[in-house]
Structure formats: structure tokens, C-alpha cells
Design a protein that fits this description.
Helix content is 33%, strand content 24%. The protein is α/β, with parallel strands linked by helices. Strand 2 and strand 3 (69-75) form a beta hairpin. The chain has ten helices and 21 strands. It has a six-stranded mixed sheet with strand order 2-3-8-4-9-19, covered by helices on one side. It folds into two domains: 2-197 and 326-411, Zn peptidases (Aminopeptidase); 199-323, 2-Layer Sandwich (Alpha-Beta Plaits), CATH 3.30.70. Helix 1 (2-15) packs antiparallel against helix 10, helix 6 (225-239) packs across helix 7 (289-306) and helix 8 packs across helix 10.
Length: 417
């Protein structure tokens, strides 16, 4: 019976391949950049399609009118687990339009690729999730026990306040496991199956100098805040050592970027009296905010000994970007086994376990709610995200839908006739 339902699910995805692509294109054509942060147009497109497909009851959960989240529940009618399938509906801003070969909100199909803002991150994967649920429902409704909760969320690319965090913290949305359909490749599609999602820490450094007329700069040696900030940037880049656990499976080392933003000075004819820059850190499980702060202070102590005249202060940035906790899911989780088997059948191979380089809404599903979460397993490549002429292979969208359908059938599978 399992092989039969696998075959039926994959055939269903193939029959609906054109509709899946049309849905992805419609999502791209509904702008939802963050900033400013307004998913009403794209949520309306998604809600209409989910209702047309009759996947289940659709609820709009919005902390504010312009930040709607969609919750679509397929209830099997039999008791069992709840599987959360998640994708976000917002995108980064398109950036300079002259770098795009076409309007970022006018999806283009060319040479097997779908181009447009959000094609990979992650309107294409959201469409694949919906059609994966459809295929599972049409192929194996009688074999499923429990609930599929398709959560298409707002505000992942911005401050991350009104999307998955709102659903978890304010509405108490829960499940037994969650899968996020973020792209999981760097050099090829489906490069790995991430069980770890790195966390994020954001810090702001302020360097004070002496703001005076530039014609008397020679009277205030060492007063140029921009120069001192530049020296501090290089010092952090060369000497900051972030401690992390050794010998842990499925994990990559932490990374940090200095000078993510840099502002200084008030005018051309002045010595800059204040400079400010930010640093972002990508953390791995086992690292803590307190530990990173200690590492920074150790590095700063060396700088202050070398530059005793430098007036430096720092702190974590306000809001959620100050610190998000990295997550890790055990390979023994039932959802992991279900995804591994689904990938073997739909992709013809099983990607190795790995670490997702960035952060995803796993910080809320797992970090806040304690739900075992696969932080990213979706079509597309990270190298195509957050850049002009974003694209995704159309064939991978249909393969993704098959992966999700087979995952549902396995994770919620029942032996009942």
C-alpha cells in the first residue's frame, strides 16, 4: 500500500506541475518586501489558492492588518500527530532595480528557471508546500492520522516579530514536529538536510573622538573617531576568537562579520567625533550570549591596551536581532526519518545531514516552542537569495512538492485500512 500511495502522490504532483508554477508566479507578482513589511497582497493570493485547492480550513492570523499569517489545517479525522509545514511570504527588498534584467515582480520563465523576487526565498517553496499537501491528500487521505498545519507566515525577513514568533508566543500554535521549506543548497539543490540552524547575534560599537573644525585637526591627535573605528574593525577581524564546543556532529564553526553597517562624521570640513558600526555573529549550539559577550570583552581589552586613548562602548542591538538561539534536531526524530525516506524516493538520493548557515523561523518553532524542527529543506540555492535576478529551477519545485507529499504520508502514516 505504501508504494502505491507513493506512486499516486508523485503522479498527482506531475499532473499539477503547471498549476504549481502558476501559483509560484502569482505569489512573486504580489509584492511583499521587508521593509516596509506588508504581506496583505501576497496573503490574499495564497489564501485564494488554498481555498480553491480545498486543502482545509484557512485562518488569517494577523497581529496587525498589514502582517497576515495564513494557517491552513488539513484534519484527517483520526487522532495522531500534528505536522507543521512552514514557509514565509515576505521577501527582502529588491535593491537597485537597474541590476535586474526584468521587473522583479514580473516573473519570467527562461531555460527551465523561474526568475523573480522571492522565486527561491521563498515563494516558490511555499507553492511547493501547498501542492505537496494537495498530493498527499488526494493520494493517501485514508492512510493519514493527525493533522497537517500549513503555516505561510509574515515577517521572517524583517524584525521577525509578527510571523512565526507571533503564532508561537501569542497564539500558542503547537505541533509535534515542523519542517521549514527554506532553500538548502549552496552549490547544488538539496545539498544537505540541515538538522542545525545557526543563531544570530547583533552588536553595535560606538567610538567617540573629538569633533572639531578640520583646520585644527593637528591640535587633537587621536581625535578622529573614524580612524579609531577602522582600527577597531581590523582588530576585531584579526583577533576576535569565538569559543564554541568541539567535536559536535552536524555543525559548522561560528562566523562573524564586522562593519555590517558603518556611519561616521557630520560634514566634510570636520573631524569626525563619533563613529558607529555593527557586527553580526552566526552562532552554533552550545554558544551563549554571555559567552560571546565575554569573548568580545577579551578582544576589546587588548585593543584598549594598545589604544588607551580610544573611547569605545558596545552592546547588543535592541530587539530580536540582538540574539537568537541556535537550534538542533536529533537525527532520531521521527520527522527526520520520514524526510530521509521521502528524499530517497523523490530525489533519488539522501542528502547528508548538515548545518544551515543562516537562521530560520526554527528559532521560534523550536527555540521558543520546543517543537523539533528541520530548519531548512527546500528547493533552490542560497546563492540565489537576496540578490538581483533571483531564480529557482522549475523542476525542483515539482520535486519539492513530491518530497513534502511523501513526508506527510510517512510521518502521519497509519496502518488503518
Amino acid at each position: 500500500m505504501t508504494e502505491l500511495h507513493d506512486t499516486l502522490a508523485q503522479e498527482c504532483v506531475s499532473r499539477h506541475a503547471d498549476a504549481l508554477l502558476a501559483f509560484a508566479r502569482a505569489l512573486i507578482a504580489a509584492p511583499s518586501p521587508s521593509p516596509p513589511g506588508d504581506e496583505r497582497a501576497v496573503a490574499a493570493v495564497a489564501q485564494a489558492e488554498l481555498q480553491r485547492l480545498e486543502l482545509g480550513a484557512v485562518e488569517v492570523a494577523a497581529p496587525r492588518p498589514e502582517r497576515p499569517n495564513l494557517l491552513c489545517r488539513w484534519e484527517s479525522g483520526r487522532p495522531g500527530r500534528t505536522l507543521i509545514l512552514n514557509g514565509h511570504l515576505d521577501t527582502k527588498a529588491p535593491g537597485p532595480l537597474d541590476l535586474w534584467s526584468a521587473d522583479p515582480y514580473e516573473p519570467v520563465v527562461r531555460e527551465g528557471q523561474l526568475y523573480g523576487l522571492g522565486a527561491a526565498d521563498m515563494k516558490g517553496p511555499c507553492a511547493a508546500l501547498a501542492y505537496g499537501v494537495l498530493a498527499a491528500k488526494l493520494a493517501g487521505a485514508q492512510t493519514v492520522s493527525g493533522t497537517v498545519l500549513l503555516a505561510l507566515t509574515a515577517d521572517e525577513e524583517g524584525e521577525a516579530q509578527d510571523g512565526a514568533r507571533y503564532l508561537v508566543q501569542d497564539l500558542g500554535v503547537r505541533g509535534d514536529a515542523a519542517l521549514i521549506a527554506e532553500p538548502c543548497g549552496v552549490t547544488r539543490d538539496w545539498e544537505w538536510l540541515p538538522l542545525v540552524s545557526r543563531g544570530f547575534g547583533g552588536a553595535r560599537f560606538v567610538v567617540h573622538g573629538t569633533s572639531v573644525h578640520s583646520s585644527v585637526a593637528d591640535l587633537f591627535p587621536g581625535g578622529n573617531a573614524s580612524v579609531a573605528a577602522a582600527e577597531l574593525l581590523l582588530h576585531l577581524q584579526r583577533r576576535l576568537r569565538l569559543r564554541c564546543p568541539d567535536g559536535l556532529p552536524h555543525r559548522s564553526a561560528p562566523t562573524f562579520v564586522v562593519g555590517s553597517t558603518f556611519t561616521s562624521g557630520q560634514g566634510l570640513a570636520m573631524v569626525p567625533g563619533r563613529a558607529e558600526f555593527t557586527v553580526n555573529v552566526r552562532t552554533v549550539p552550545g554558544m551563549t550570549r554571555e559567552g560571546v559577550a565575554t569573548d568580545v570583552e577579551t578582544c576589546l581589552a587588548d585593543f584598549r591596551r594598545e589604544r588607551p586613548d580610544a573611547d569605545v562602548e558596545w552592546d547588543f542591538v535592541p530587539g530580536t536581532l540582538a540574539w537568537t538561539t541556535p537550534t538542533e534536531t536529533s537525527p532520531q526524530e521521527p520527522l527526520v526519518s520520514a524526510v530521509v525516506e521521502a528524499a530517497r524516493i523523490a530525489l533519488g538520493r539522501t542528502p547528508p545531514f548538515g548545518t544551515f548557515p543562516g537562521g530560520t523561523d526554527a528559532i521560534w518553532w523550536q527555540g521558543l516552542a520546543g517543537i523539533p524542527t528541520i530548519p531548512a529543506f527546500g528547493p533552490g540555492m542560497l546563492t540565489q537569495c537576496h540578490r538581483p535576478n533571483e531564480s529557482i529551477a522549475i523542476a525542483e519545485l515539482t520535486r519539492a512538492a513530491a518530497v513534502y507529499a511523501l513526508t506527510i504520508l510517512r510521518y502521519l502514516g497509519s496502518d488503518d485500512p
